[in-house]
Every structure is written in C-alpha cells, then in structure tokens.
Amino acid sequence: MQKYLADTQILIWAIISPSKLPAEVRILLTSNPIAVSQISILEIAIKQKIGKLP
C-alpha cells in the first residue's frame, strides 16, 4: 500500500465536491493512507477567511 500527500485543492474537492475528482483519484483517496501538510490546513483557513470557500 502506498502513501500519498494530498495537494490543498485535491483535499478541498475531496471534502466539498468529490465529483470534481476523477474516479481514479477518488479510489486512491479512499483506499490508501493520505497525508496532509500543515501548510494545506493554513491555506484552507485563509481561503475560508477571505470567503473563497463555502
């Protein structure tokens, strides 16, 4: 089993709008360990603060 590092936009789409992701990516995300960098959490917080996320 491989480990993957999720990009910020992939993480956002996986949570908010998984249909935007290709089926292959959705399968990878649900069947493998996924790491998320601390900076991605910061980026999401910034996007939320400036109104770019629902």
Describe what you observe in this structure.
This protein has three helices and two strands; from the N terminus they run βααβα. By secondary structure, the chain is mainly alpha-helical. It has one domain (4-49). It has a two-stranded parallel ribbon. The longest helix has 12 residues, at 38-49.
Question: Which blocks of ≥5 consecutive residues have pLDDT under 50?
Answer: none
Q: What is the succession of H and E elements?
A: EHHEH
What is the subunit organization of this protein?
single chain
The chain-level mean pLDDT equals: 95
| Shape type | flat
Helix content: 55-70%
- Walk across the major sheet and give the strand order: 1-2
Total beta strands: 2
**How many domains make up the 3D coordinates?**
1
Radius of gyration: 12 Å
Helical element count? Answer: 3
Structural class by helix and strand composition: mainly alpha
Q: CA-to-CA gap between the ends?
A: 33 Å
**Main β-sheet description:** 2 strands, parallel
Please report which band the strand proportion falls in: under 5%, 5-15%, 15-25%, 25-35%, 35-45% or over 45%.
Answer: 5-15%
In short:
The chain has 3 helices and 2 strands.
Observed structural traits:
54 residues, mainly alpha, 3 helices, 11% strand
Layout of SSEs?
Layout: E1 4-6, H1 8-16, H2 23-31, E2 34-36, H3 38-49
Parallel strand pairs: 1-2
